[in-house]
């Protein structure tokens, strides 16, 4: 009897555990940030709070960014307080999506790998469009980061599936 009999030639899905945890943390951080955006948006829905923000921005001393400050004030006034409900709802929707992804990946759920691939991959064309039509380094980093996440998760999910399939046939 060979002592190697119990050793599996297939890489364990646990080998990818650290990478999945990093992505899970990233998704949870995005979730928390979006919940904060939603709370702020719902708070700005009240006319009094909205007017206080505009007043604060008008009197804020920002060296070398006066033009930016006035553009922001104008944008907020054009936007109006009533539209912040929509911003809050969209932010909460994305927070739920990212939260599901993050928790599923943290728990090592196989479905979460594919769920994240589909959800993240579906946003890449929009992010790419935004990056090409209004270039910014943060936008570019987001596209590259999300592409890396999708490629990594597809590789992990396919290896996991192959490992599970081989293990199933190995034990039967």
The ordered H/E elements are HHHHHH
- Count of extended strands: 0
Spans where pLDDT lies below 50 across 5 or more residues: 1-11
Amino- and carboxy-terminal Cα gap: 19 Å
Give an account of the 3D structure.
The protein is mostly helical and 172 residues long. Mean pLDDT is 77; it is low at 1-11. The protein is built from 6 helices and no strands. The chain has helices spanning 17-44, 47-59, 66-79, 84-106, 110-133, 137-171.
Q: Which descriptors apply to this entry?
A:
172 residues, 6 helices, 80% helix, 0% strand, mainly alpha
Summarize the structure.
With 172 residues, this protein is mainly alpha-helical.
SSE topology:
Layout: H1 17-44, H2 47-59, H3 66-79, H4 84-106, H5 110-133, H6 137-171
